[in-house]
DNA sequence: TTGTACGCGTTATCAC
DNA sequence: GTGATAACGCGTACAA
């Protein structure tokens, strides 16, 4: 255990105290600013700290103080471009109040989600943010006895230690579909997300609702199953053609699905939007760089992430918070186009051009 | 401090011991399997654990044992699609050996990088993986005295506690450029990455080297400055046109840059690859879904991440590791096309079609 | 095989 | 203001 040159020379608070000729408590006080100390001692300690390059042991500190300044963040996968923005927002929002996020992925698996939650509790995180968690509500309540929980993209029975920030997928999908209808489309296909995803179901519902509200009627034939991934969109689009159904527009449950669908259209030599209009959902950073730029429903993920970070911190500090559902907004770009007998007798409506949106 | 129904009912090892009628050390032994215990006691303890829903306090455990089973992962930004794959690989690779990654972003800022390193050390992580870190080598060596370091995308003086896994950007860029030359291109523009990024410089060098090797010669006029982001690619491409230089192909320092450049081409009504060939670098998951699918240099990021995870674990266990530089491979898709007087007297070469590549 | 006692590095509660 | 002293929850020699 002696210094062989390789052993980490981790200095302790006690050694600093000895070097500075004060007691450990004084050093601790200076470190935390928890009380006034004579300037002379203050200086001596600071010099010792600098000299030995002392770094307080976070674990010991947490063990003694009972708080870790750590927030567990349960995401489905760190690698999805969609979650990435959320994580960035959370990280940024947590930075200023001095908390560190602990990101883990559960791979869309409820069992994994629960084991990750156990890990969080074992690590004594001060709070937890869950993204699209599928854990049942009873378990959430149980977990919330250990640390405040903030659930994103879902609605649960709120309490002082369990909050939720729902996202209005239904409204977003309805707006998008209505936009296509307004542009004259009647045969609008839909490529759905995973059957067991709450938000995927809501988006399907929004699509259906808009159709019915407009008197167009919902046609199951026009719906194909996707999986929120590019491959799924690609295959679903292909099946739509193989089945021979006719349509002038396609609404995809998310942007990645739209990317896949767009490739199938390209393969088949169909133009977007001249032949087929295309709409996505999420507004991923790259969607404004699709060819042509994708019309989609924007989810302000980064901002939501920041909101969530601020929210969980407030909960930890036992302050009350109120979270109103996040509204989504349609971003009209260039993959949609008016179709059919135009109400106004224009000859060839020029394709609209919205300015390219900046990506951070 | 009494149970008011809200206080986290965190059971301790000692309470388990009392409930099971054994000593704390016995419980500890059972938890860690560090010694044989009478089946009867074993069972009693396990029942108590289940009954009280006991979860060992990770902090206390780490403080006592001196290891945290945690790996600090310093990334530049969690939100980049490029890093996302690395992180996923790292997380997966760390899972089996029982380590937890601690992801933090330094936002391409050396000062942030160093403060994050301090945090890692303060948290007593068992090892650290750095992605594209710009910290000077002397500091790295200093940090490596506290925990083994593995540096990705860079080459440093290796030791038993400091390893690096270089990525051969130069070779990748050279291959890509050579491919364009082979296809008959002579005027090949290049949109560079940030001036202070080592890999960006290497890619520029590879481009230049290929040109010189082929006797085409390097022309500074054909080089524009980008920033590895879509906006940068968009603007750089635009400047290329404004400056009036002529070219038949564009090689972008990374895929995101290519996305931006592609949009400018679209805006100007130029077809890819019929009018201009386009090549990227990285092979992001969405690049195979670009319209048309992007020819690019593939970096096996996920696999590199797994390799890194395994590597750092070995270093922690004081096993020797050997990391050979990662070769990159050109993936020929549909944004490049033969040009000019074709050596073989074909009339109109049909655009090549590679099968769409799966994403994860 | 099992229990006791101490240490891990801090914070917090006391007196002084 | 400052310094002992006792937690914090667990691992682990050491002894039994």
Summarize the helices and strands and which ones pair or pack.
The structure is a homodimer of 360-residue chains.
Chain A (H helix, E strand, L loop, with lengths): L12 H8 L3 H9 L6 H14 L5 H8 L4 E6 L5 H15 L4 E6 L4 H13 L4 E5 L5 H7 L5 E4 L9 E4 L3 H14 L5 E5 L5 H16 L9 E3 L4 H13 L6 E4 L2 H13 L9 E6 L12 E4 L2 H16 L12 E3 L29
Parallel strand pairs in A: 1-2, 1-3, 3-4, 4-5, 6-7, 6-8, 8-9, 9-10
Antiparallel strand pairs in A: 10-11
Helix pairs in contact in A: 1-2, 1-3, 5-12, 8-9, 10-11
The structure holds a DNA duplex (16 and 16 nucleotides).
Summarize the biggest pleated sheet of chain A.
6 strands, mixed
State the share of residues found in helices of chain A, binned by percent: 40-55%
Low-confidence stretches of chain A: 1-7, 342-360
Proper CATH architecture of the largest domain in chain A? 3-Layer(aba) Sandwich
> Nearest-angstrom radius of gyration of chain A?
27 Å
State which percent range the strand residues of chain A make up: 5-15%
Let me know the average pLDDT of chain A: 91
Fold-level CATH name of the largest domain in chain A: Rossmann fold
Oligomer: homodimer
What gap, in angstroms, lies between the N and C termini of chain A? 50 Å
Structural class by helix and strand composition of chain A = alpha/beta
Shape of chain A: elongated
Put simply, the count of helices of chain A is: 12
Number of domain modules of chain A: 3
């Amino acid at each position: 255990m002696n210094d062989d040159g390789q052993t980490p020379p981790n200095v302790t608070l006690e050694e600093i105290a000895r070097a500075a000729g004060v007691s450990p408590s004084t050093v601790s006080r200076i470190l935390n600013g928890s009380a006034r100390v004579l300037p002379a001692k203050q200086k001596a300690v600071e010099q010792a700290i600098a000299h030995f390059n002392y770094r307080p042991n976070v674990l010991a500190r947490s063990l003694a103080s009972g708080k870790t300044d750590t927030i567990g963040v349960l995401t489905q996968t760190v690698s999805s471009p969609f979650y990435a923005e959320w994580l960035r927002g959370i990280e940024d929002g947590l930075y200023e109040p001095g908390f560190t996020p602990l990101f883990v992925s559960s791979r869309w698996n409820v069992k994994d989600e629960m084991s990750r939650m156990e890990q969080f509790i074992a690590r004594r995180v001060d709070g937890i943010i869950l993204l699209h968690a599928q854990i049942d509500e009873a378990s959430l309540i149980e977990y919330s006895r250990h640390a405040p929980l903030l659930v994103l993209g879902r609605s649960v029975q709120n309490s002082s230690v369990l909050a939720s920030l729902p996202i209005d997928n239904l409204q977003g999908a309805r707006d998008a579909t209505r936009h296509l209808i307004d542009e004259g489309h009647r045969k609008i296909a839909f490529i759905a997300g995973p059957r067991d995803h709450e938000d995927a179901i809501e988006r399907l519902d929004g699509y259906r609702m808009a159709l019915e509200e407009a008197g167009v009627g919902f046609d199951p034939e026009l719906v194909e199953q996707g999986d929120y991934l590019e491959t799924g969109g690609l295959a679903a689009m292909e099946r739509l053609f193989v089945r021979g159904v006719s349509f002038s527009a396609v609404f995809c449950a998310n942007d990645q699905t739209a990317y896949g669908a767009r490739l199938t259209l390209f393969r088949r030599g169909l133009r977007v939007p001249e032949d087929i209009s295309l709409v996505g959902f999420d507004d991923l950073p790259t969607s404004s760089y699709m060819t042509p730029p994708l019309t989609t429903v924007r989810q302000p993920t980064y901002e939501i992430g920041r909101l969530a970070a601020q929210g969980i911190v407030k909960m930890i500090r036992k302050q009350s918070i109120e979270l109103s559902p996040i509204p989504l907004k349609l971003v009209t770009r260039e993959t949609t186009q008016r179709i059919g007998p135009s109400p106004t007798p224009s000859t060839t409506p020029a394709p609209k051009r919205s300015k390219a949106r900046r990506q951070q």
